[in-house]
Amino acid sequence: MPKILFVASEAHPLIKTGGLGDVVGSLPVALQSLQADVRLLLPAYHDALARAGELKTVARCAIENLSAPVRILEARLPGTELIVWFVDFPPAYDRRGHPYLDAGGRPWPDNAMRYALFADVAVRIALGQANIKWRPDVVHCHDWQTGLVPAWLATEKARPATVFTIHNLAYQGLFPRETFEALGLPAAFWSHEALEFHGQMSFIKGGLVYADRLTTVSPNYAREIQTPEFGCGLDGLLRHRAGRLTGILNGIDDAEWNPAQDRFLAKNYSPRRLQDKLANKLALQREFGLPEQPETPLIGVVGRLVHQKGIDLVLETLPGLMHRPIQIVLLGSGEAGYEEALRVQAARYIRRLAVRIGYDERLAHLIEAGADMFLMPSRFEPCGLNQLYSQRYGTIPIVRRVGGLADTVVDASEKNIKTGKATGIVFEKARGSALLAAVDRALALRRNNLRWNKMMRAGMRQDFSWRHSATEYLRLYRQIMRGKRTSSGKRHVSRKTGK
Ligand code: ADP
Ligand code: GLC
Q1: Domain 271-461 top-level CATH class
Q2: Any residues with Cβ below 6 Å from ligand 2, and which?
């Protein structure tokens, strides 16, 4: 039974800012059901501990230069048997709210220290130096916050294998050189072949350069990030490591996201009881203060309000969209400029456009269930989960052909509709005109009940559960465990001296 240590900065339902939380909250559970022995390591954020239920201290480890020992607390991921270990060092993690940002939406000034300490403890557990008996065969790290783990482990001769998953290459954990020095990292890491990136220190490069295997969350994004357009300056490195990089599509927690038993819905429904979806639409219109009109097409948007998600395209297209006989509900939070612009537009198109700024799990579910269509005009999208949830909920996704969206939504071309394969509307260009044309296609299709319902059902029939992807991860773990370690080339820099 392979022993896997998951190291990540968020996991639903303990703490979540986006899809990373969903994945880390469900993939380890799926792996466990395939007989893997998985433990999840998280920072002991205030809110995560509050949601964790019963906690016990399983280890204490003294770390040089820290005022107190770090405690490792153990709990179970709520609703599962998965063991979660929290790295508890209150000065670093005992803060309410967002894990990465302060109340003003700015990154915590000590984020580099927080995630370096987190990585340090992960490394100690991996090497059996944290007063914990369990030792992993594979350490599976996620995104920049965990990038130092593969880098540090690469300096050790006897160590577990490492996998680093890129959920979003655009977030790299870049810090000034002084931070690199303050963290006391091996001097040899200050090289463009290691952690240095255009004069800054890059956490994500720790994963990209040193992990035995790299994965990302869709096959298409795995190809895209090897090109200058999507590579965020790291495409050369990723091409260099292409032989070690695979795209494994995300799955969804199909118990949590199941219209037949979702506790957040006004009425549960299934492909056989599609007519019950309507009660959710009416509830959604009511909730957002829109006129309760069963016939008016209702478009939902949920997501982080950032450039990635093409929110500017939605804003730019609003005058055109509002000329159409539709309603839009949008739930999101993010950049202040987008939040403000959306508020202004909602006041302008009252009764047509309703905006809720904030983070609300229940409303996200209700929108997936109540909307007729779900809009994701992303500029790039490593995988995207909302288009998967939409399909499961019989809500037709309108998406840009990019990243994981291209891998998971089948366009409603004449041929795909005839063969019953179509599950959504896919458009090419990140332009307002293309978005508008896609919405028009959706509206035209919706006038044909038969075709529309066929598409809804085709989406609802898709199996996006973790079963397939968890099996692929397991295969990958087994491969590296069989001793097929890659040569990342930098394995013998001493962790302490950098020589
Ligand atoms: P990303 O990880 O880039 O944000 P994904 O589509 O992979 O995008 O996942 C986003 C997840 O976060 C989904 O579960 C979505 O419902 C959730 N989410 C995003 N914004 C909000 C919000 N404002 N309120 C509730 N849930 C949200
Ligand atoms: C990232 C990506 C998103 C992906 C999620 C989970 O946040 O932006 O596309 O679905 O991670 O892997």
Answers
A1: alpha beta
A2: 18-20, 23, 167-168, 217, 250, 381-385, 404
